[in-house]
């Protein structure tokens, strides 16, 4: 006996799903998979610090998501030259 698991992601064709080989997360595009690997699994070279609350992130994408979600600012509304890279 075997089970078939069909994952549905809104807006994605089931034939075009990409799975992370490191954690099994299923993503909708190759670009999303690449960003996921960079955000979650890559060795950290730099730190990205929020200029509003000083919280530190390991990727620019994570920082931008944080700023939009928690501070309700779009990336263009902040002066990115003030973002600190360590």
From TrEMBL:
PROSITE patterns associated with the record: ZINC_FINGER_C2H2_1, ZINC_FINGER_C2H2_2
Annotated ranges, domain C2H2-type: 18-46, 48-75
Protein keywords: Metal-binding, Zinc, Zinc-finger
Nucleotide-binding recorded as keyword: no
InterPro entries for this protein: Znf_C2H2_sf, Znf_C2H2_type
GO MF assignments: zinc ion binding
Entry protein name: C2H2-type domain-containing protein
Record organism: Anopheles epiroticus
């Amino acid at each position: 006996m075997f089970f078939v698991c069909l994952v549905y992601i809104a807006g994605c064709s089931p034939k075009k799903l990409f799975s992370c080989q490191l954690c099994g997360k299923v993503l909708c595009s190759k670009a999303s998979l690449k960003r996921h690997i960079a955000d979650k699994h890559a060795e950290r070279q730099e730190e990205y610090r929020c200029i509003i609350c000083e919280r530190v992130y390991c990727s620019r994408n994570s920082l931008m998501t944080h700023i939009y979600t928690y501070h309700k600012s779009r990336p263009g509304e902040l002066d990115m030259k003030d973002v600190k890279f360590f």
